[in-house]
Amino acid sequence: MSRGPLRIVVVGGGPVAARLVQELRPALEAGAAHVTILGEEPVPAYQRIRLGDVASGRVDGAALSLLDAQDEELAGVVVRCGVRVVALDRDRKTVILDGTGGPSVPYDRLVLATGAQAVIPDFPVSGTVGRGISVPAAAGLRPVGVMALRDLAEARRLHQAVRDAEPVVVLGGGVLGVEAALALAEVGAAVTLLHRGHVPLGGQLDPDSGRLLLRQLLAAGIQVRPDCGVQELVVAARAQDRATAHDGVPHLTAIRTTQGRRIPATLLVACTGVRPRDELATAAGLDTLPRGGIVVDRNGRCPDDPSVFAVGDCAAVLGSQPSGLIGPGWDQARAAAGALRDEAGVPEAVERDAAGRPVPTPTPTPTPAGRLDPIVVKSHTLSVACAGDLTADPWDPQGPSVSTWADPEAGQYLRIVTQGARLLGFVAIGLPRSAAELSRHALTGTLPVADRSALLAMEHAAADRELGPEDVLCRCSGATAGQVHEAALECATVDEVGGRCGAGTGCGTCRGRIEALLAGPPVRQPAGSLA
Q1: What does the alpha-carbon distance between residue 490 and residue 482 come to, in Å, rounded to a whole number?
Q2: Which residues contact 15 (CB under 8 A, 6 or more apart)?
Q3: Minimum mean pLDDT among 157-161, 227-231, 283-287, 306-310: which range?
Q4: Which residue intervals make up region (Disordered) (predicted)?
Q5: What stretch of H or E contains 439?
Q6: HEC letters along 403-431
Q7: What is the DSSP secondary structure assignment for residue 109, as one 8-state letter?
Q8: Full strand arrangement of the beta sheet holding 125-129
Q9: Residue from 125, 271, 268, 142 nearest 196 by CA
């Protein structure tokens, strides 16, 4: 008697879960696997990395969707939204939902894709709410208006604030804070950026590039307050909100900073860090790291329970701290899906040549020891990318080699740190082509060109034509230049291209290249070239 399809339950409905489903497609189409996705949000997976575009009003949240619940159900996937998992029963292999989610869900294989949650400090609060109700009466309740911009609901609330010209404060000078502040300023919102360092992205940039970034943010209309934090939140009840006045719920009206300033604000976007959501795994007795992260092997499998996998921001591959980047999350989804397809009896299809002979599968290249994970600021008006260590002294004859080029008036800066042919670190501001090229080569830890000044020449050259059809254009999805070009022939937007081959739906580094292809003439290229 043959068994039924392998029951795979995925806890978490984010982009990495969507990627996992795509990679499982052969097993789903063969009827060898069935997937149930349990997501807390009321909507299926979407491009979370583009929430800033929703907040600024550039795109509607519906345009970011990565899964169509009805279409997926036809393909052997059940997408359940708005359900909360409260526990895992590993002995019975069931996922236990809260009281409103219905009965427990059985599984043969469980994939935890719970992501990360924002860490928002418990700020002191002052003021009165309701009909003379003091703030302590609402103890433990975070004031309305404090958010982290981690989901669509918060992005839409922020967009409403932009439309109503409400003052917004962004707390945190890391990449998420800089992105949020830029997205709001680009559409004319009144935004103040508070951060504890001397310059934004101070932990990733060298002093000169940090000063240039600060200058560019000020030029964008952002009120930047360095060396500054939140002393307390000032709250009150909104007179127009009767329910608020009756319930005594505090609404944010202003922020008092550690510098003694009082800044009006109806929204505080706290970009103050995230922590892997591993509480379900910890409670179930699975191995987790002290700072967060579910320990898994290279295929995403938990060593102490082979029926449980973890991928994305919650996964600590080989005990390494989760990176928080979308590219590694997609790599993990691909590896876990491969292991699950094998268990379902549907290994990866064998490619054959014209004579019907199997084409040897390339041996997977191990992760290079010198690999760097680039940080890219996603903005429509400012290009910033960096990776690795930039602290080397350029005048130390025994130290690494450092090359620096700056044009502050033009808002451009480039710094490259190398040891021989190995790339140790880089930062590129206002130089999008150099940023893209260095970001791509950072994954192998190598220099893109021997003559570093050639990178500057690329800014005005047709660098896209140097990519062959087999060259990877989108490092997050793995889509090649040839695949992207073929998709662009039949698409009108970057999102449509992403729907066909995945390119442009990750970190956003390649969106400029895709836009250039869409803007060019729709000419099909011969094999071996990409014009």
Answers
A1: 13
A2: 45, 46, 47, 48, 49, 66, 326, 329, 505
A3: 157-161
A4: 349-373
A5: helix 432-442
A6: EEEEEHHHCEEEEEEEECCEEEEEEEECC
A7: E
A8: 133-134, 125-129, 230-236, 251-257, 262-264
A9: 271
Distance, in Å, from the CA atom of 9 to the CA atom of 17, rounded to the nearest integer, reads: 10
pTM of structure: 0.81
474-507 in b/e form (b: 16+ CB < 10 A) is bbbbbbbbbbbbbbbeebeebbebbbebbbbbbb
Query: What are the angstrom distances between the C-alpha of 414 and each of 62, 220, 435?
Result: 37, 20, 9
What 8-state DSSP symbol labels residue 43? S
DSSP, residue by residue, 192-254: EEE-SSSSTTTTTS-HHHHHHHHHHHHHTT-EEE-S--EEEEEEE--TT-HHHHHHT--EEEE
Mean pLDDT value across the chain: 83
DSSP assignment string, 481-516: HHHHHHHHTT-SSHHHHHHHH-TTSSSSTTHHHHHH
Which residue type, as a one-letter code, is found at position 121?
A: P
In the block, residue with structure tokens 């400012």:
382
Q: In this predicted model, what pLDDT tens digit does every residue of 301-311 receive, in sequence order?
A: 999 999 999 99
Residue 289 forms beta bridges with which residues? none
Q: Are strands 305-310 and 301-302 parallel, antiparallel or unpaired?
A: antiparallel
Report the C-alpha gap between 57 and 53 in whole angstroms. 6
In the sheet with 94-97, reading across from the earlier edge strand, the strands are 85-89, 94-97, 105-106
- Per-residue pLDDT at 136 exceeds 50: no
Of the candidates 246, 225, 228, the residue with the CA atom closest to the CA atom of residue 237: 246
Consecutive H or E run containing 17: helix 15-23
DSSP state of 137: G
Q: Residue 144, SS3?
A: strand
List, as one string, the DSSP characters of 326-367.
Answer: HHHHHHHHHHHHHHHHHHTT-PPPPPB-TTSPBPPPPPPPPP
Does pLDDT of 89 surpass 90? Answer: yes
Cα radius of gyration (the chain): 24
Task: At 520, give phi and psi (nearest 5°).
Answer: -80, 175
Are the CB atoms for 157 and 267 separated by under 8 Å?
A: yes
β-pairing, 168-171 vs 267-270, is parallel
Angle at Cα 267 formed by Cα 115 and Cα 63, nearest 5°? Answer: 50
pLDDT for residue 299: 95
pLDDT of 275 strictly over 90: yes
Residues 346-349: contacts with CB within 8 Å, 24+ apart?
A: 346/26, 346/27, 346/30, 346/32, 346/33, 348/26, 349/26
Residue type, 269: V
**Which of 187, 158, 366, 150 lies closest to 271, judged by CA?**
150
Terminal alpha carbon distance of the chain = 56
Q: Which tokens go with 356?
A: 């019907």
Q: Nearest-CA neighbor of 226 among 202, 205, 190?
A: 202
Beta strands 116-118 and 274-276 are: antiparallel
Cβ atoms 500, 484 nearer than 8 A? no
pLDDT per residue as tens digits for the range 466-517: 566 766 677 666 677 788 888 888 787 777 787 677 777 666 667 777 877 7
